[in-house]
Amino acid sequence: MKTEEISIPWADTELVSRTGLPKLLISSYSNESEEARIFTFSISVSVEMSIFEYNGSALVAMVGKNCFAIASDRRLGVQLQTIATDFQKIYKIHDKLFIGLSGLATDAQTLYQRLVFRHKLYQLREERDMKPETFASLVSAILYEKRFGPYFCQPVIAGLGDEDKPFICTMDSIGAKELAKDFVVAGTASESLYGACESMFKPDMDAEELFETISQALLSSVDRDCLSGWGGHVYVVTPTEVTERILKGRMD
Amino acid sequence: MESVFGLVGKDFAIVVADSSAVHSILVHKTNEDKIMLLDSHKLMGASGETGDRAQFTEYIQKNVALYQFRNGIPLTTAAAANFTRGELATALRKNPYMVNIILAGYDKDIGPSVYFIDYIASLHKVDKAAFGYGSYFALSMMDRHYRKDMTVEEAVDLVDKVIIEIRSRLVVAPPNFVIKIVDKDGAREYAWRESIKDALVPAV
User: Fold this and answer.
1) d(CA A86, CA A106)
2) Which residue among A104, A109, A149 places its CB closest to the CB of B123?
3) Partner B contacted by A42 (CB < 8 A)
4) Residues of chain B neighbouring A105 (CB-CB closer than 8 A)
5) What residue in B sits closest to A110 (Cα-Cα)?
6) Which ranges of the sequence are coiled-coil (chain A) (predicted)?
7) pLDDT tens across A15-72, in order?
8) What is the ipTM of this complex?
9) How many C-beta atoms surround the C-beta of residue A153 within 10 A?
10) In chain A, which among 175-214 make CB contacts under 8 A with chain B?
11) CA A113 to chain centre
């Protein structure tokens, strides 16, 4: 019987941190004795996870012709374990203003409750809805209040401003605003999303084409990120209507 | 490590928890009740730091009762879940409670519901949930066998399957489990699954 020595290189940490608990399956088949043996090795590694990667998320917003689209994945996880596949990350502030919150789920929920509270007060005082630009400044101020003990969230804000001009912006967890004319991304899949959006985006798309583009960008990006996925949630907003759609992608 | 899991059935919800109270290598007792009755139609199964678990669940139970005294009507399950999340979230950046919670309840016009509340106050309404090392086995078994609108018999059957899996595959498997159920008739203890009984020693 032939004995083979197999040397197993240690998996590089990048690979390990993306796959959680990897398993190596090694099978050997000896031609002479027609024996097959299967060896299974389990590697258990504890990896330092950033607090932003605790729950997992992917968010993207895109501008079209007099419309915008905002999309998120649907996974709620606790590190490597998936808890739910219907978790909401995009919230409506008013009919023409949506905010997506990526990052730590508990902070996203707390922040959303605080923002709804502030917007309701604003509505009572001003007797109108907040403009997206104003709302973005509000979010930025609330995040910077906690400068030395921040909310671990990255918001993506999308809305229709004066004369229904689309507005999108994102910011980091301490409120540094980044306005964009085309698209903004956030979450654990943000790097993949940047690439996908950059290549798929065209200016002045109509609502249907914008939906197709943002959906393809989202699904292809979350497929490269193990912490986000399990479907997609897309809102397409025009001056006259809001369309909400659920995407079915790779359910892993 | 403590295992708690729960699921929603046709018009009831079930919460199951192990019942061992452990301090490093010593098992203090094997009939510890970790599922608290918040009020007539709510169950709160909790796992985590022992002192935090006992204190926090009692605190929530008393506040739920206070609401009913003050307002004359009981809280809905969703309201109780959001209140619990609020308390955990407020304490999170000061003195966090290391308690994971599965809150199950029955409301007259909504039916049964189960809420998953992490120790860092992430709240989500779910059909099935589990915490602890046992969750790896519980969630997989439930993913395989769970269906919407199961009867009590089917649900308890699934619970037993999960308990068998935890007992056989977890190296520090807890020997005993308590099963509690909540439906339109209220929240109550359903059964114990014991494989070790505390020896009854007569007083001298």
Assistant:
1) 16
2) A109
3) no
4) 118, 122, 124
5) B89
6) none
7) 333 333 434 444 444 445 545 554 444 444 445 578 999 999 999 999 999 999 999 9
8) 0.91
9) 26
10) none
11) 20
